[in-house]
UniProtKB/TrEMBL annotation:
Gene3D superfamilies: 3.30.530.20. This is STAR5 protein. It holds the Pfam family START. It comes from Chaetorhynchus papuensis (pygmy drongo). GO terms for biological process: cholesterol import. GO terms for molecular function: cholesterol binding; cholesterol transfer activity. Keywords: Lipid transport, Lipid-binding, Transport. It comes from the Eukaryota. May be involved in the intracellular transport of sterols or other lipids. May bind cholesterol or other sterols. Residues 1-156 form the START domain.
């Protein structure tokens, strides 16, 4: 979990190589080639007219959290094992897509949540295997490289 958090910090500190691919009035999505795997990294950025704490409540990865209520790509989120107050092993499921052509997915990740000195809140995750969570029937087991979210306070 700590390695995933450090990788996210490195992505945040390295502004080079990102290319815009989508933009609305509220969100900009960019990509760049990954140095870890044969594919691309993606990041979405936006400024919301809300307190960082309110935004964090909507995106933080916790069982029973708000993410499953607003994010159509997250069907369920459960904690398999709480390692500490800030680190846990979690299972996330996604619904089928494209008229059920794409099967539902499940992801098992080790997740860390942190609050930084500047008020930034961070969740970082990466794939892990856990004996209490073998692959489930009717789901394709997905694999996450280091990923996560930053909730960064901005003036005003």
């Amino acid at each position: 979990a700590e390695a995933a958090a450090e990788q996210l910090r490195l992505y945040r500190r390295d502004p080079g190589g990102w290319r815009g691919c989508r933009s609305t009035g509220e969100v900009t999505v960019s990509w760049r080639p990954s140095t870890e795997f044969a594919g691309n990294l993606y990041k979405g950025e936006g400024i919301l007219p809300a307190s960082p704490r309110d935004v964090w409540e909507c995106i933080k990865p916790v069982a029973g959290g708000l993410r499953t209520k607003w994010d159509q790509n997250v069907k369920d989120f459960e904690v398999i094992e709480a390692i500490s107050d800030t680190v846990s092993v979690c299972r996330t499921t996604t619904p089928s897509a494209c008229m059920r052509i794409i099967s539902p997915r499940e992801f098992v990740d080790v997740v860390v949540m942190k609050q930084c000195e500047d008020g930034t809140m961070l969740s970082a995750a990466t794939n892990v295997e856990h004996p209490l969570c073998p692959p489930q029937p009717n789901f394709v087991r997905g694999f996450n490289y280091p990923c996560g979210c930053f909730c960064i306070p901005v003036p005003g």
